[in-house]
Amino acid sequence: MAKAAKDTRPIADQATSEAACTYAALILYEDNQDIDATKLAKIVKAANLRVEPIWTKVFEKALKGKKIGDLLHGSSGNAGSAPVTQTTATPVAAEAKKSEPVKEVKKVEEPEEDVDMGGLFD
Hints:
There is one protein chain. It is flat, with a radius of gyration of 29 Å. It is an all-alpha fold. It is built from five helices and no strands. Helix 1 (about 15-30) packs across helix 2 and helix 2 crosses helix 3 (about 55-65). This is 60S acidic ribosomal protein P1. One of its GO terms (molecular function) is protein kinase activator activity.
């Protein structure tokens, strides 16, 4: 029986691992497949990358049951959310706001001190 060859590829750094799992999740989304760790790992391996197994598990848990399309398009998933409306202030509140005096804040400038940097910028 043939023994499987040991994977000698170096493990990708954190940023590369996250990007690889993100792209793998997008591929699965576009193919209308469930996102799970084994499918993510297969796609990452097909891309000739090696990531820590924790990354595929993290992405599986983070995206399980989520609507990826809503995440991509910025929708929070709340279909029944009401539009935001601007309210106007009552005349009493507007009058009170007018009567408040405007305070000017003056910035006090402190003189700069020469600090010896030990010849660092000479």
